[in-house]
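[Solved] Which block belongs to which protein?

Original post:
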Amino acid sequence: MSWKVRIFKAKTKLKRVRYWFEAKISFAVLATLRLLPMKSAMTVNAKMFQFLGPFLPRHKMVVKNLSLAFPEKSKSEIDRLARGMWRNMGRLVSEYIFLDKLFDYDPESDQPGLVEVEGEDIFRRLNSEGKPCIFFTGHVGNFELLPICAATYGLDVTALFRPPNNPYIADRLLASRTTEMGHLVPSKAGAAWGLARALDNGGSVGVLVDQKFGRGIVSEFFGRPVRTNPLLPKLARQFNVPVYPARCIRLPGGRFRLILEDELVLPRDENNEIDIARSAQLLNDVVERWVRETPEQWMWLHRRWIDNE
């Protein structure tokens, strides 16, 4: 065995050990939060993330991304948005524990709860029609509530999600999401086949469209070049199904507004086929509109732009 192979195996083993320790610490923190009342746990974790976030190495990327997206904002405004994002991340992490209690929306109830829904008429129409469609969203607010809401209206949705790099956390997360959200397809090789199969069987699919995709179509986001996954417009073109934007907005008092917008009509080419490149840009435009409305509720943690790679 060559020394290069030995070094590679040693690094791989060390990485798995690090992942194991990170997972154990994360699970311990979540177990401790579970002992607290739901509202207290979310408040504590939000404040902890808001305090610790600026000391993490990833914070530099957050500030850089915010500065690229909002060059007109001052340093103090960027810092405020960055702290707000960490607070949002803290709430999101703790909300995984309480998803079953958090989603208290009842379409037949007149009493307000933690969750309110805008676009209820669209949900009901889609349920009565019983036809497949594609929902898309971005990493805004608690986006995990959206497939639960769709299931509340009797819609069978297979959701595409990107598992964490840590395999131990990914396994635990997949198990909890499957319990709460139904069908899930990890975003890796073969994911497109899973979504296509769901549509072919008459079901609907949900896709997060604001992630970097190395082999994606070059388009723009906040006026800067990005690579966008063409999967959604390709599926819409292949199966001729409507596309609906959906998002979650955090409200004061630990409440949420889930919004299902009207059908997004994708642009077509001279052959009346869905134009993949122009559709990818349209998806970015929709997500950018959402992020501009609530910038602190979007994940600024990743290298989204090509010139920031």
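(Second protein starts here: sequence line, then its structure tokens.)
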Amino acid sequence: MDPPTAKPPVGARVLRAALHSAVGLCLVVALVHVAVVFLAVAPSNALSRRYSQQINAWVYPLFEQNWRLFAPNPDSFNRQILARTAHSDSDGSMRVSPWLDLTAVDRAAVTHHVFPSHTAQNLLRRAWSSYVDTHGADDTARSERAAMMQTYLSNIAADRVTDHDKNRRFGFIQLRVVTRPVAAPDATGGNRPSTPVENRLLPWWKVPPHGK
């Protein structure tokens, strides 16, 4: 007669059940994520239109998808994004800072780096592209996603300014975007100077207080 099999300790059974639950939860989240991203990139259909708000809330801005890997569409313009800040003094007057070239700061973080940061290369540029897509030319947010992209862009700019000058105090930020066509090479191999095709000044945005 075989000896009775000893039951595993209670702690081991609880740990095993927790592990199974965690694996099951990860599997469910992964399946939901794949399904939502599929609906986001698939042609418009009854399901994606009905749940468009939930799909956009999940996908943007962290899981945005595009097909540029397979059909590259390089930019034909160079965009220079500048920012300045303001804060209220004790007497109620506004103190405005000089313009800071955020694009130049990002470019300096990438130049001569063997493994440049993806955020320095694309974060600010993609945030601006998404802002333009949702706002058009009048800087008016007419949807929840547009308002979210405005907050996203202002937060990125405020964080970049703070990283550049940790002692700067401000509660408002303003962006200016100068757009120039990609310059054609001249006879000497250099680039011809290009004239800006757009010099866009955005409104002042209130941001959480930065600095001391």
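Accepted answer:
You had them paired correctly. Confirming on the second one: The chain has two domains: 1-72, 77-210.
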